[in-house]
């Protein structure tokens, strides 16, 4: 498991022009999922150059803005990508040192608080090094890393990975 923290400091987040609903969802996930799993976080509105997680939202998938040539969702009921997490830099231990979390506002526009928190939990889970479950042994609790469950929490398996990595 390659976590996203290269030092002993809290994981620092910054938000780039988030709509209020996704700002709230990200704050909720930091306070209710990430920090209780043993990984302290902080927010910095004017981030230093070594920021850990940059959270961005836009209406991805428009013809004039395809972003990464991905099949982005065009509404809360359409198929396609709802969010995407990418690593910006890797440290000497082959861990992601800085990640971008992107929320697709075409999808989040009308899905409600629970779905917004589910997306935030899932994408920020990737930012801290969690992966999708690959076996039934990893799926107890059907947490948010198993996208589509609607869950807004990490499973005990996911929390174990977070604790072991940090």
Automatic annotation (TrEMBL):
Organism of derivation: Nocardioides faecalis
GO terms of molecular function: metallopeptidase activity
Highest taxon of source: Bacteria
Protein name: Matrixin family metalloprotease
